[in-house]
Amino acid sequence: MTVIRLGTRGSQLALAQTRHVAQRLQKALPGCSCEIVVIRTKGDAVQDKALHEIGGKGIFVQEIEEQILSGQVDVGVHSMKDMPAAPAEGLAFSRTWPREDPRDVLVLRQAASLAELPAGAVLATGSKRRAFQLNRLRPDLQVTGIRGNVDTRLRKMEEGAADGLVMAAAGLRRLGLAGRITQYLDPESELVPACGQGALALEYRADRAELAALLDSLSSPEDHRLACAERTFLAAVEGGCHIPVGAYCRREGDGLLLTAVLGTEDGARLERAVLRGGLEEGEALARRAAALLREKIGKEGRL
Questions:
Q1: Catalytic site positions
Q2: For residue 257, how far is the Cα from the chain centroid?
Q3: pTM value?
Q4: Residues 6+ apart with CB under 8 A from 7
Q5: Which residues are paired to 36 by β-bridges?
Q6: Dist CA 242 CA 36 (whole Å)
Q7: What is the pLDDT of residues 67-104, one digit of tens each?
């Protein structure tokens, strides 16, 4: 029997995602058994500081990557939006599997929509990207930071720490909590999502060709194309948790539409680009968008 060891963080969402991967692998490969290995990361250990204060995206993956490289686990299961633009040396990502809903959403305690929130209401998020875009949509609201897993954030809101939360639709849906969503935010006109949001990043040692072929066989060519465009934008702007950066790519007829956002570290400048191109031009569109936004912000702001 083939045993594939899946490394993951220990949150309910991380475990739900990893169980999903295990089920798909076991269905695709008769005789395969998956073992889930929970690994505690720096991001899980430090909960009293904002992400940009403790190291950015890599804080959720370093310990998992070390165990992949050492052979203690075979595959690391991550949320793609939490990943640095490139894997660590000696590691690789599989092609993108079918993606969950990439949109951001509001979970509100009483109001029925963003528009119905009264002036001065408090929205909580752990993301600069979300906070600075919300400040543009509703400058009369208070946007505050929050850390913790999905359940912790929901509990804090219910206890009165905030009037609402801004979260990823994918996480809530994977946990069976779609009913908690008050409003989906438009990914082009309201809140541009994180690059790769809704997709999983499956990471393995680059010399594992047979494992790579198995993981790639379960991918979605369409979702891979879109995720690659968004991840290319992230790499081109050298984005992490220190600056607000997001990208959303979708199919539009026979081509692609890419919406990207980039801001300065303090949020004083936040610029958006919308580009169209052919189906095979996603990565080129992303590099063009990055160059346009870096030039626009570089003239007057500091990245």
A1: 82
A2: 19
A3: 0.90
A4: 37, 39, 64, 67, 68, 72, 73, 74, 75, 76, 77
A5: 6
A6: 32
A7: 999 999 999 999 999 888 888 899 999 999 999 999 99
Quick one: which of 44, 43, 51, 39 has its CA closest to 203? 39
Token look-up 């002036």 returns 119
152-210 tens-digit pLDDT: 999 999 999 999 999 999 999 999 999 999 999 999 999 999 999 999 999 999 999 99
* Residue among 47, 53, 65, 57 at smallest CA distance from 8: 65
